[in-house]
Amino acid sequence: MDVASKETDDRDLINSITEGDTKAFSRFYQLYEKRIFVFIQKKLNDPFDAADILHEVFMEVWKNAGRFEGRSKVSTWVFGIAFHKTVDRLRKKIPIPTDDDYTLQLVDNTPSALEILNTADENIHLQNCVDKLKPDQKIVIQLAFFEDMAYGEIASVIERPEGTVKTRIFYAKQALKHCLAKLIGAKR
Q1: Do residues 180 and 126 make contact, with C-beta atoms less than 8 angstroms apart?
Q2: From the CB of residue 141, how many other CB atoms can be counted at a distance below 10 Å?
Q3: pLDDT tens digit sequence for 149-181
Q4: At residue 118, what are phi and psi to the nearest 5 degrees?
Q5: Engineering a disulfide at 76: which of 16, 44, 72, 137 sits with its beta carbon 3.0 to 4.6 angstroms away?
Q6: 25-44 residue pLDDT tens
Q7: Spatial separation of the C-alpha atoms in residues 188 and 144, rounded to whole Å
Q8: What are the extents of the domains in the chain?
Q9: Please, what's the b/e burial string for 45-65 (b: 16 or more CB within 10 A of its CB; e: otherwise)?
Q10: Nearest CA-CA partner of 78 in 134, 136, 11
């Protein structure tokens, strides 16, 4: 199924949910449940909290499907709901870093990302390094690379300017390159 027809199907499901169609809601849940859960779980690192928030996200979709204005993709809208509910939960637990935390100047003298990622343990190393990122960097990396969202969509989800998204991704990539270089170097 191509992207345009998937988006049309998603919008049709949202329209049906607005009319109280429980079968459409069930189908929508099946389509998004795993992706949303993984997204929340990676942010919180607590499966029980992630399950609670997942439930809250889908309750919000059920109650507020009529508020979807169509200015973004349905997936962007749903991930935005998940993001905000996750951030609300995190605010209760830990402080969220501000944009001022990204003023570091990093020197890039590491091997290219392709050279680093071609190791046998690339997935384990990469996940370890992603887990070490600052929360604001981790979220944009997850949305960009694991959910395949464009910068504009990410900006919409996290309600920050697109330039901020680009900056966070740049610094996250630099941090990942340094982390991976250390891990790979330690193994050799």
Answers
A1: yes
A2: 21
A3: 888 889 988 989 989 999 998 998 888 888 877
A4: -85, 15
A5: 72
A6: 999 999 999 999 999 988 88
A7: 30
A8: 3-93, 99-187
A9: eeeebbeebbebbbebbeeeb
A10: 11
SS3 (DSSP) at 25: helix
Taking the C-alpha atoms of residue 157 and residue 84, their distance in angstroms, rounded to an integer, is 8
Mean pLDDT by runs of 10 across the 188 residues of the chain is 76 92 92 92 85 92 89 89 88 60 49 46 70 87 84 89 90 85 65
**Which residues have C-beta within 8 Å of that of residue 14, sequence separation ≥ 6?**
28, 61, 65, 68, 74
For the domain spanning 99-187, the CATH number is 1.10.10.10
d(CA 154, CA 143) in angstroms, rounded, equals 7
Would you say 142 and 131 are in contact if contact means Cβ atoms under 8 Å apart?
A: no
Grouping H, G, I as helix, E, B as strand and the rest as coil, residue 16 is helix
Degrees (nearest 5) of the Cα angle 24, 25, 31? 90
Scanning the chain, the segments in alpha helix (DSSP H) are: 3-18, 22-44, 47-64, 74-93, 113-117, 122-132, 135-141, 151-158, 162-187
Using only C-alpha atoms, the chain has a radius of gyration, in whole angstroms, of 18
Question: Whole-prediction pTM value?
Answer: 0.61
Question: Which tokens go with 17?
Answer: 């949910």
Topology of the domain covering 3-93: Rna Polymerase Sigma Factor; Chain: A (1.10.1740)
- Structure tokens that stand for 165 in this block: 């998204």
